[in-house]
Amino acid sequence: MSSARRNPLNAAAMHGALILYTLIALFPVFVILINSFKERRAIFREPLALPDGESFSLIGYQTVLKQGDFLLYFQNSMIVTVGSLFFILLFGAMAAYALSEYRFRGSLLMGLYLALGIMIPIRIGTVAILEMMVATGLVNTLWALILVYTAQGLPLAVFILSEFMRQVSDDLKNAGRIDGLSEYTIFFRLVLPLVRPAMATVAVFNMIPIWNDLWFPLILAPSEETKTLTLGSQVFIGQFVTDWNAVLSALSMAILPVLVLYVIFSRQLIRGITSGAVK
Asked: Membrane-crossing residues (predicted)?
Protein backbone atom coordinates (compact mmCIF):
# COMPACT_ATOMS: atom_id res chain seq x y z
CA MET A 1 0.00 0.00 0.00
CA SER A 2 2.88 2.40 0.81
CA SER A 3 4.49 1.83 -2.62
CA ALA A 4 1.10 2.48 -4.26
CA ARG A 5 0.87 5.76 -2.45
CA ARG A 6 4.36 6.77 -3.60
CA ASN A 7 3.64 5.86 -7.23
CA PRO A 8 0.72 7.87 -8.68
CA LEU A 9 0.24 5.39 -11.52
CA ASN A 10 -0.16 2.46 -9.13
CA ALA A 11 -2.58 4.46 -6.99
CA ALA A 12 -4.62 5.45 -10.04
CA ALA A 13 -4.72 1.86 -11.27
CA MET A 14 -5.80 0.61 -7.85
CA HIS A 15 -8.55 3.20 -7.55
CA GLY A 16 -9.66 2.50 -11.11
CA ALA A 17 -9.93 -1.23 -10.39
CA LEU A 18 -11.91 -0.56 -7.21
CA ILE A 19 -14.25 1.84 -9.01
CA LEU A 20 -14.78 -0.69 -11.81
CA TYR A 21 -15.55 -3.45 -9.31
CA THR A 22 -18.00 -1.16 -7.48
CA LEU A 23 -19.81 -0.32 -10.72
CA ILE A 24 -20.06 -4.00 -11.66
CA ALA A 25 -21.41 -4.88 -8.20
CA LEU A 26 -23.96 -2.06 -8.17
CA PHE A 27 -25.13 -2.49 -11.76
CA PRO A 28 -27.67 -5.29 -11.02
CA VAL A 29 -29.08 -3.27 -8.11
CA PHE A 30 -29.43 -0.23 -10.38
CA VAL A 31 -31.24 -2.26 -13.05
CA ILE A 32 -33.64 -3.75 -10.51
CA LEU A 33 -34.45 -0.37 -8.98
CA ILE A 34 -35.12 1.52 -12.22
CA ASN A 35 -37.20 -1.28 -13.74
CA SER A 36 -39.33 -1.62 -10.62
CA PHE A 37 -40.80 1.79 -11.52
CA LYS A 38 -41.68 0.86 -15.11
CA GLU A 39 -44.62 -0.77 -16.79
CA ARG A 40 -44.15 -4.28 -18.13
CA ARG A 41 -43.55 -3.39 -21.79
CA ALA A 42 -40.92 -0.77 -20.94
CA ILE A 43 -38.98 -3.32 -18.86
CA PHE A 44 -38.36 -5.50 -21.92
CA ARG A 45 -38.19 -2.69 -24.49
CA GLU A 46 -35.59 -0.51 -22.72
CA PRO A 47 -34.30 -2.29 -19.61
CA LEU A 48 -31.42 0.16 -19.07
CA ALA A 49 -33.39 3.37 -19.60
CA LEU A 50 -34.58 5.48 -16.69
CA PRO A 51 -38.37 5.62 -16.17
CA ASP A 52 -40.00 8.61 -17.84
CA GLY A 53 -43.50 10.04 -17.96
CA GLU A 54 -44.62 7.37 -20.42
CA SER A 55 -43.06 4.29 -18.83
CA PHE A 56 -43.30 5.24 -15.13
CA SER A 57 -45.65 2.96 -13.15
CA LEU A 58 -46.14 1.85 -9.55
CA ILE A 59 -48.20 -1.20 -10.46
CA GLY A 60 -45.50 -3.53 -9.18
CA TYR A 61 -45.45 -2.01 -5.69
CA GLN A 62 -49.25 -1.93 -5.60
CA THR A 63 -49.37 -5.63 -6.53
CA VAL A 64 -46.81 -6.56 -3.86
CA LEU A 65 -48.69 -4.70 -1.12
CA LYS A 66 -52.10 -6.06 -2.15
CA GLN A 67 -51.50 -9.61 -3.36
CA GLY A 68 -48.71 -10.76 -1.09
CA ASP A 69 -48.62 -10.30 2.66
CA PHE A 70 -45.44 -8.29 2.28
CA LEU A 71 -45.44 -6.73 5.75
CA LEU A 72 -45.66 -10.18 7.37
CA TYR A 73 -42.84 -11.50 5.18
CA PHE A 74 -40.74 -8.45 6.00
CA GLN A 75 -41.42 -8.89 9.73
CA ASN A 76 -40.44 -12.56 9.58
CA SER A 77 -37.20 -11.75 7.77
CA MET A 78 -36.34 -9.06 10.30
CA ILE A 79 -37.04 -11.37 13.25
CA VAL A 80 -34.96 -14.19 11.77
CA THR A 81 -32.07 -11.94 10.75
CA VAL A 82 -31.87 -9.90 13.96
CA GLY A 83 -32.39 -12.96 16.18
CA SER A 84 -29.73 -14.96 14.33
CA LEU A 85 -27.21 -12.13 14.46
CA PHE A 86 -27.84 -11.65 18.18
CA PHE A 87 -27.07 -15.29 18.98
CA ILE A 88 -24.15 -15.45 16.53
CA LEU A 89 -22.48 -12.41 18.09
CA LEU A 90 -23.28 -13.43 21.68
CA PHE A 91 -22.23 -17.09 21.56
CA GLY A 92 -19.47 -16.44 19.01
CA ALA A 93 -17.91 -13.74 21.19
CA MET A 94 -18.14 -15.94 24.28
CA ALA A 95 -16.54 -18.90 22.52
CA ALA A 96 -13.85 -16.68 20.99
CA TYR A 97 -13.04 -15.19 24.40
CA ALA A 98 -12.72 -18.65 25.94
CA LEU A 99 -10.45 -19.92 23.15
CA SER A 100 -8.25 -16.81 23.16
CA GLU A 101 -8.05 -16.27 26.93
CA TYR A 102 -7.79 -19.76 28.40
CA ARG A 103 -5.40 -22.55 27.56
CA PHE A 104 -6.83 -26.02 28.15
CA ARG A 105 -6.36 -29.49 26.76
CA GLY A 106 -8.10 -29.79 23.42
CA SER A 107 -8.37 -26.06 22.74
CA LEU A 108 -6.40 -26.40 19.49
CA LEU A 109 -8.56 -29.31 18.35
CA MET A 110 -11.69 -27.33 19.19
CA GLY A 111 -10.44 -24.41 17.11
CA LEU A 112 -9.76 -26.75 14.17
CA TYR A 113 -13.20 -28.31 14.61
CA LEU A 114 -14.82 -24.89 14.40
CA ALA A 115 -12.73 -24.10 11.33
CA LEU A 116 -14.29 -27.10 9.59
CA GLY A 117 -17.62 -25.33 9.86
CA ILE A 118 -16.27 -22.61 7.57
CA MET A 119 -15.11 -25.09 4.94
CA ILE A 120 -18.08 -27.49 4.97
CA PRO A 121 -21.41 -25.96 3.83
CA ILE A 122 -24.28 -26.50 6.24
CA ARG A 123 -26.62 -27.41 3.37
CA ILE A 124 -24.92 -30.80 3.15
CA GLY A 125 -26.78 -31.70 6.35
CA THR A 126 -30.19 -30.48 5.16
CA VAL A 127 -31.85 -33.90 5.48
CA ALA A 128 -30.52 -34.44 9.01
CA ILE A 129 -31.51 -30.90 9.99
CA LEU A 130 -35.04 -31.42 8.66
CA GLU A 131 -35.38 -34.69 10.57
CA MET A 132 -34.19 -32.96 13.74
CA MET A 133 -36.67 -30.10 13.32
CA VAL A 134 -39.53 -32.54 12.69
CA ALA A 135 -38.59 -34.51 15.81
CA THR A 136 -38.52 -31.36 17.95
CA GLY A 137 -41.68 -29.87 16.42
CA LEU A 138 -39.92 -26.77 15.12
CA VAL A 139 -40.95 -27.09 11.46
CA ASN A 140 -42.85 -24.02 10.23
CA THR A 141 -41.50 -21.89 13.08
CA LEU A 142 -39.06 -19.01 12.92
CA TRP A 143 -36.99 -20.67 15.64
CA ALA A 144 -36.00 -23.38 13.17
CA LEU A 145 -34.43 -20.78 10.89
CA ILE A 146 -32.80 -18.86 13.75
CA LEU A 147 -31.15 -22.01 15.11
CA VAL A 148 -29.87 -23.10 11.71
CA TYR A 149 -28.48 -19.68 10.84
CA THR A 150 -26.85 -19.41 14.26
CA ALA A 151 -25.08 -22.72 13.74
CA GLN A 152 -24.11 -21.61 10.25
CA GLY A 153 -22.58 -18.31 11.38
CA LEU A 154 -20.80 -19.37 14.57
CA PRO A 155 -17.61 -20.87 13.02
CA LEU A 156 -16.76 -17.70 11.10
CA ALA A 157 -17.67 -15.52 14.08
CA VAL A 158 -15.39 -17.46 16.43
CA PHE A 159 -12.57 -17.46 13.90
CA ILE A 160 -12.68 -13.67 13.38
CA LEU A 161 -13.39 -12.60 16.95
CA SER A 162 -10.79 -14.86 18.54
CA GLU A 163 -8.05 -13.23 16.46
CA PHE A 164 -9.13 -9.78 17.60
CA MET A 165 -9.53 -10.79 21.24
CA ARG A 166 -5.96 -12.07 21.34
CA GLN A 167 -4.86 -8.47 20.69
CA VAL A 168 -6.67 -7.11 23.75
CA SER A 169 -4.13 -6.14 26.39
CA ASP A 170 -3.63 -8.69 29.16
CA ASP A 171 -2.75 -5.84 31.50
CA LEU A 172 -6.24 -4.39 31.06
CA LYS A 173 -7.90 -7.70 31.90
CA ASN A 174 -5.58 -8.38 34.83
CA ALA A 175 -6.27 -4.88 36.18
CA GLY A 176 -9.96 -5.70 36.09
CA ARG A 177 -9.37 -8.94 37.98
CA ILE A 178 -7.32 -7.10 40.60
CA ASP A 179 -10.22 -4.65 41.04
CA GLY A 180 -12.50 -7.61 41.75
CA LEU A 181 -14.35 -7.78 38.45
CA SER A 182 -15.80 -11.14 37.48
CA GLU A 183 -14.92 -12.78 34.18
CA TYR A 184 -18.37 -11.93 32.82
CA THR A 185 -17.91 -8.27 33.73
CA ILE A 186 -14.47 -8.20 32.13
CA PHE A 187 -15.91 -9.79 29.01
CA PHE A 188 -18.93 -7.51 28.63
CA ARG A 189 -17.49 -4.22 29.91
CA LEU A 190 -13.81 -4.36 28.91
CA VAL A 191 -13.33 -6.76 26.01
CA LEU A 192 -16.48 -6.39 23.92
CA PRO A 193 -16.24 -2.59 23.50
CA LEU A 194 -12.71 -3.03 22.12
CA VAL A 195 -13.76 -5.55 19.46
CA ARG A 196 -16.82 -3.70 18.14
CA PRO A 197 -15.29 -3.30 14.65
CA ALA A 198 -14.78 -7.06 14.47
CA MET A 199 -18.35 -7.69 15.64
CA ALA A 200 -19.65 -5.31 12.97
CA THR A 201 -17.64 -7.22 10.39
CA VAL A 202 -19.12 -10.52 11.55
CA ALA A 203 -22.62 -9.02 11.53
CA VAL A 204 -22.34 -7.78 7.94
CA PHE A 205 -20.79 -11.02 6.67
CA ASN A 206 -23.66 -13.03 8.17
CA MET A 207 -26.53 -10.57 7.64
CA ILE A 208 -26.61 -10.67 3.83
CA PRO A 209 -26.62 -14.50 3.42
CA ILE A 210 -29.32 -14.83 6.09
CA TRP A 211 -31.52 -12.11 4.61
CA ASN A 212 -31.21 -13.45 1.05
CA ASP A 213 -31.46 -17.16 1.83
CA LEU A 214 -34.16 -19.16 0.06
CA TRP A 215 -33.04 -22.72 0.77
CA PHE A 216 -33.86 -23.16 4.45
CA PRO A 217 -37.07 -21.05 4.51
CA LEU A 218 -38.37 -23.19 1.64
CA ILE A 219 -37.56 -26.43 3.48
CA LEU A 220 -38.05 -25.59 7.17
CA ALA A 221 -40.66 -22.79 7.19
CA PRO A 222 -42.76 -22.81 3.99
CA SER A 223 -46.10 -21.98 5.66
CA GLU A 224 -47.77 -18.67 4.96
CA GLU A 225 -47.29 -17.48 8.56
CA THR A 226 -43.53 -18.09 8.56
CA LYS A 227 -42.51 -17.14 5.02
CA THR A 228 -39.57 -14.81 4.73
CA LEU A 229 -39.30 -11.98 2.24
CA THR A 230 -37.22 -13.97 -0.23
CA LEU A 231 -39.59 -16.93 -0.16
CA GLY A 232 -42.67 -14.72 -0.28
CA SER A 233 -41.39 -13.04 -3.45
CA GLN A 234 -41.59 -16.39 -5.24
CA VAL A 235 -45.41 -16.18 -5.38
CA PHE A 236 -45.04 -13.76 -8.28
CA ILE A 237 -42.92 -16.23 -10.31
CA GLY A 238 -45.08 -18.81 -12.08
CA GLN A 239 -44.32 -21.71 -14.41
CA PHE A 240 -45.82 -19.98 -17.43
CA VAL A 241 -46.42 -16.36 -16.40
CA THR A 242 -44.17 -14.17 -14.24
CA ASP A 243 -45.26 -10.79 -12.90
CA TRP A 244 -41.93 -9.03 -13.41
CA ASN A 245 -43.25 -5.74 -12.10
CA ALA A 246 -44.07 -7.35 -8.77
CA VAL A 247 -40.87 -9.40 -8.69
CA LEU A 248 -38.63 -6.37 -9.26
CA SER A 249 -40.63 -4.27 -6.78
CA ALA A 250 -40.37 -6.98 -4.11
CA LEU A 251 -36.63 -7.31 -4.72
CA SER A 252 -36.20 -3.53 -4.48
CA MET A 253 -38.01 -3.45 -1.16
CA ALA A 254 -35.92 -6.39 0.05
CA ILE A 255 -32.66 -4.65 -0.90
CA LEU A 256 -33.45 -1.46 1.00
CA PRO A 257 -33.04 -2.77 4.61
CA VAL A 258 -29.72 -4.41 3.73
CA LEU A 259 -28.41 -1.17 2.25
CA VAL A 260 -29.52 0.83 5.29
CA LEU A 261 -27.86 -1.58 7.72
CA TYR A 262 -24.70 -1.63 5.64
CA VAL A 263 -24.51 2.16 5.69
CA ILE A 264 -24.97 2.10 9.48
CA PHE A 265 -22.22 -0.49 10.03
CA SER A 266 -19.92 0.51 7.15
CA ARG A 267 -17.50 2.53 9.29
CA GLN A 268 -17.16 -0.26 11.85
CA LEU A 269 -16.83 -2.79 9.02
CA ILE A 270 -13.99 -0.89 7.37
CA ARG A 271 -12.25 -0.45 10.73
CA GLY A 272 -12.56 -4.17 11.40
CA ILE A 273 -11.20 -5.19 8.01
CA THR A 274 -8.30 -2.73 8.00
CA SER A 275 -7.26 -3.41 11.60
CA GLY A 276 -7.42 -7.12 10.87
CA ALA A 277 -5.19 -6.64 7.84
CA VAL A 278 -2.67 -4.65 9.89
CA LYS A 279 -2.59 -7.33 12.55
From this structure: 12-34, 78-99, 111-130, 142-165, 186-208, 246-265
